[in-house]
Automatic annotation (TrEMBL):
CDD domains: dndB. InterPro entries: DGQHR-contain_dom (IPR017601), DNA_S_mod_DndB (IPR017642). It comes from Streptomyces roseochromogenus subsp. oscitans DS 12.976. The lineage of its organism: Bacteria, Bacillati, Actinomycetota, Actinomycetes, Kitasatosporales. NCBIfam families: DGQHR (TIGR03187), DNA_S_dndB (TIGR03233). This is DNA sulfur modification protein DndB.
Length: 341
């Protein structure tokens, strides 16, 4: 393992070209769509960004020279590799590409270092096996715990505060899991609150504190028109019963309600204006037995949250609240009515 200056990363580390067939590559194709976010992360946080080590194979001789002949010093020293050797990244090609892009915007990052684990290149089969082994047990953490631990994202902060302090959600949000078990005593997940908050505030341009205030006001107003939430807090119903019989605590419903709120807030951020309009939600039958949800929030009786399902659920709420559909929403609605896939 070596600490390598960032300025050298783009110059010496290579990854296979996209046009090569998968069976003769040692890496997956670079997903360029991931690069802007990674690059922005480095540039926006030059003093405290965190990257895990790169893993690379070296097709050439390597010689290690320790700083001492005995003791701990035997494990610390310099590694010498001819510049004619070929360096191939086995894990971390997106980090490498993001570092290259970040250096163009922020050249001073060049003196920063990143850990690199070097392996001797033993051929294509070995490199492919290394990639498979490195990624075999990689598991993306639940979105909820990512939101819980994120102190940079204002939306994550707002969602956490909502979950911990709001009278509507306090004590009823799973802060770690993004899916709830049948027996869970929680009504909501933190990730569902995050995405609903994101959709609620989309395009409003609010600062953090005003956003937190209006988010709390909105969900408290929604709570007034969905009686089952309050019944769980008063222990008149259990959370598993509500999740089983109704869809309004599921992520798709929260996200859809966030979009509805966004429309109301864009018209007016004065609660005296938008709160009365939420009373129209009282006419909605949120129970799973309501056949109106089939093909929208439900597929075969099971809650689904694809982009299409979310759009059709939002459409249903808009229609019941006498809100206009956008052209895109109208097209999706027309296709649903026709029975198109």
């Amino acid at each position: 393992m070596s600490m390598c200056p960032l300025r050298l990363i783009p110059k010496i580390f290579l990854f296979n070209e996209d046009e090569l067939a998968p069976e003769v590559r040692a890496q997956r194709v670079l997903n360029k769509g991931r690069l802007p976010a990674l690059t922005r992360y480095i540039v926006d946080n030059p003093d405290d960004y965190v990257f895990s080590a790169l893993t690379a194979s070296v097709d050439g001789p390597m010689q290690f020279e320790s700083i001492s002949d005995s003791g701990v010093g035997m494990r610390v020293g310099q590694i010498r590799i001819p510049m004619a050797a070929r360096f191939l990244i086995n894990d971390g090609q997106h980090r490498r590409a993001a570092i290259e892009a970040a250096l163009k915007e922020y050249p001073d990052l060049g003196e920063e270092t990143i850990a690199v684990v070097f392996f001797h290149d033993a051929g294509l089969a070995r490199c492919q096996q290394m990639f498979a082994d490195l990624n075999r047990h990689a598991v993306r953490p639940p979105r909820s715990i990512g939101v819980l631990y994120d102190h940079r994202d204002d939306l994550a902060i707002t969602a956490r505060l909502l979950a911990m302090k709001s009278a509507v959600f306090k004590g009823h949000v799973d802060m770690e899991s993004s899916t709830l078990s049948q027996r869970s005593r929680k009504l909501f997940t933190l990730s569902a609150l995050y995405f609903s908050t994101q959709s609620l505030l989309q395009g409003l341009g609010l600062k953090k504190e005003p956003a937190q205030e209006i988010v709390q006001q909105y969900w408290e107003a929604v709570d007034q028109v969905i009686p089952e939430w309050g019944m769980v807090r008063r222990r008149e119903l259990t959370a598993p019963e509500v999740r089983k019989d109704f869809i309004h605590s599921h992520g798709i419903a929260l996200h859809a309600l966030g979009r509805i709120g966004n429309t109301l807030l864009k018209e007016s951020q004065d609660p005296k204006s938008w709160k009365p309009k939420l009373n129209r939600l009282k006419t909605i039958d949120w129970s799973r037995t309501n056949s109106d949800w089939e093909g929208r929030a439900l597929i075969g009786g099971r809650v689904q949250k694809s982009h299409q399902n979310l759009a059709l659920t939002v459409n249903y709420l808009r229609q019941r609240m006498n809100l206009r559909l956008s052209p895109e929403e109208q097209r999706a609605e027309d296709a649903y009515v026709r029975g198109d896939e």
